[in-house]
Amino acid sequence: EVSTEDPETAFCTLANREDLNPEEGSIHHCLYQFTRNEKLTESNKLLCDVCTQRHYGPKKNIKSENKYVYTNAKKQMLISLPPPVLTLHLKRFQQAGFNLRKVNKHIKFPEVLDLAPFCTAKCKSVAEGDKKVLYSLYGVVEHSGTMRSGHYTAYAKMRSINNHLSDLVLRGQFPQALETEPVKGQWFHISDTYIQAVSASKVLSSQAYLLFYERLL
């Protein structure tokens, strides 16, 4: 979908991202880098239909690709509709010559995550005036081993049913009151048929591969 926005507000976020100062090696830093403002120049210039028509006339008159006009541009990926359930997939491999190598670095992640600095200012499913989009962690998938072999385990929180979340999923209702604390419950570590109760600190120290958050309502 292509839309025309005021250049002054097109790249504005729901909350000021410059106040973040995200710590390197954290999920906030990952999201900050993923949604950063990029400049498209030289070979990455953007094909501009408006510029082309202004210079050469209607599109039907253009018979040569050399007559298309490319221009410098800015690009930024932001969230326009925060989901009821947020899944974050961490890229845990990197290219090393002709081989792929697993990244074992610990990435810090919080129990309560605010997506507002990564959402567009005209974000949907957010009540007018709200400057926070909060999520509570309820699941983590961890991988041990190498790129060739390994084992997946999971951490899951047993918690009460969030009826407001189903209202958001089924009826798209706006959050009425945002909670700032994580959903209460007991964490469990699951490895095949082995299940053990663990502390939240144990979960937060894991090497996450997948993170699952639910919207706090």
From TrEMBL:
It comes from the Eukaryota. GO terms for cellular component: cytosol; nucleus. Residues 1-216 form the USP domain. Pfam families: UCH. CDD domains: Peptidase_C19K (cd02667). One of its GO terms (molecular function) is cysteine-type deubiquitinase activity. The keyword tRNA-binding does not apply. GO terms for biological process: protein deubiquitination. Keywords: Hydrolase. InterPro entries: Papain-like_cys_pep_sf, Peptidase_C19, Peptidase_C19_UCH, USP, USP_CS. The keyword Hydrolase applies. This is UBP16 hydrolase. It comes from Geococcyx californianus (Greater roadrunner). The lineage of its organism: Eukaryota, Metazoa, Chordata, Craniata, Vertebrata.
